[in-house]
Write a structure and sequence with these properties.
Length: about 200
Amino acid sequence: MSDDMGFVYKSKRINSLSSGGHMQRSVQVGRSGQEIFKQVCNSMGLSCRKATENEDISKHTDIFVNFDRGQTSDRFVSYDVKGLKKGISRGEITVEWRNVCGKMGWCNDWGTPHNIAFQVSQDRFLCVNNSELFTYTKSVCDFSRPTDNFRNCFHRPYTRRGNKDLMSNFSIKEIVEHCSTWEMRLNSRPVKKEYEKIELL
């Protein structure tokens, strides 16, 4: 999703619906998070590759990771990497079910991507199974109380004025309790399989 990763946003519609300052900050945060995530994978002995432009746009994928260390397998698992956001300091993450154009967001039950990697510190990511994240967050969000104020969207559906997106905030604690989560950290021990819980937050 950034020029450092080999491409930039191509959707003029998405660009027009997001303010210039917000878009620039999002790209900068995303760029940093993706680069650090690649460093984490390399330090753990995991091979990874960046997504193509089409994979990024159509499958919400930033990085593919191969967890079969020392093997010849081509099995890569898709990750959407979320850079370090302000909400992390409050112990919260934002989940997007629908993007600004009203199309499928990165949190979905289609398996695109397989997992979401939320950066929670300079060298650490909380990884979540995307389908489980979708199922849980949709089940606990109070859709009878929509809001257009981001500060009030904890467990409430939030849509920015004039847009078609749909998102909500949830606590990291509840995500860890109700979804398959695992940690990936710089220079931590290698994982043997996709869902091995290295160390929960």
